[in-house]
Amino acid sequence: PARSTVQYPVQSNCERLTDSRENERVRYSVVIPVYNEQEVLDTTYDRVKAVMDTLGEPYELVFVNDGSKDGSREILERLSAASQSVKVLNFSRNFGHQVAISAGMDYASGDAVIVIDADLQDPPELILKMVEAWRQGNDVVYAKRTVRQGETLFKRWTAALFYRFLRLLTDVDIPVDTGDFRLIDRKVCDVMKGLKEKSRFVRGLVSWVGFRQTAVEYVRDRRFAGETKYPLKRMLRLSTDAITSFSEKPLKMAMYVGAMLSLTSIVALVCALCEPLFTGRGVSGLFALGAVVVFVNSILLIAVGILGQYVARIHDEARGRPLYILDSQPGLEEESRHGGV
Ligand code: UDP
Ligand code: MG
């Protein structure tokens, strides 16, 4: 006959303590930035919760209320009162999507941190795929959209153009058609917490820190309800932040243009002065004068370009990014992951 035995493991107090803490330790943190999303929050919570429950490990939902002016705050506080896994950060005012994500990362305690929009444009079900890729050893799993539904042609085009333009300008490998919907490992999150620059373009920073990155593809749904919180003005600000944080090429542009104009004007001037030798006519004064004017201006442009180089260096220092980031250090003691901070 089968005997069922109950085992009472003999444990020291200390072991039991760490054990219970181990059980409580959050494995997954889901960071959800929220700005005036009262129509969707309950559904978002239900869908994200359903997905996270299937993973069968402790998780937390970190809602960052980015100064919502509608009923979002009350809904979040109700959710948080009803469930231990819901944590809410209420901002004192609207600080912007990128700041909200950063705050969520600061407070998230899981081994894997997932960032997802509140409006259900990012399907929570994709988190399962991301977690799978994470378990296979990837440190960053970003969601790449193949199709965008329910967004205006204007938004799709400007977004597509923007990602390609940014790629052209920067040396950082920022994937195209990828929003902030992604999973990052604890070690990546720790590095992100150390990056204190103010004008943040989070997805660029995540690319910049390196580690093993991979993509999962998905179809971006239409908004579940409400309307976009990214009007043209904010889109422009985000793209300016992205370009100025990840490229110095605009600063060098003046120099290139100046150098080119300078060369052309010198050639033009020489041509103008030599013209009489071949044609027997007098020097074309207007042409020569034009060449001189262009030459003087090109010197100014070069000067601006040189200034730009110094500004770029100041900018680099001011951002205060670490000089390098270690993934691991075999043979050395585990002390600090960041180098040169
Ligand atoms: N969001 C935010 N602060 C803002 C603007 C937006 O926290 O100032 C949140 C918003 O609630 C949503 C996410 O960021 O969860 C993405 O915003 P939205 O859906 O409006 O952008 P879109 O998908 O249209 O690019
Ligand atoms: Mg959206």
TrEMBL record:
Protein name listed in UniProt: Glycosyltransferase family 2 protein
Topological relation to the membrane, as annotated: Multi-pass membrane protein
Organism expressing this protein natively: Alicyclobacillus fastidiosus
One Pfam family this sequence matches: Glycos_transf_2
EC number(s) given by UniProt: 2.4.-.-
Principal cellular location given in the protein's record: membrane
Residues annotated as domain Glycosyltransferase 2-like: 29-189
Molecular function per GO: glycosyltransferase activity
Keyword list, A-Z: Glycosyltransferase, Membrane, Transferase, Transmembrane, Transmembrane helix
TM regions (residue ranges): 253-274, 286-312
Enzyme class: transferase
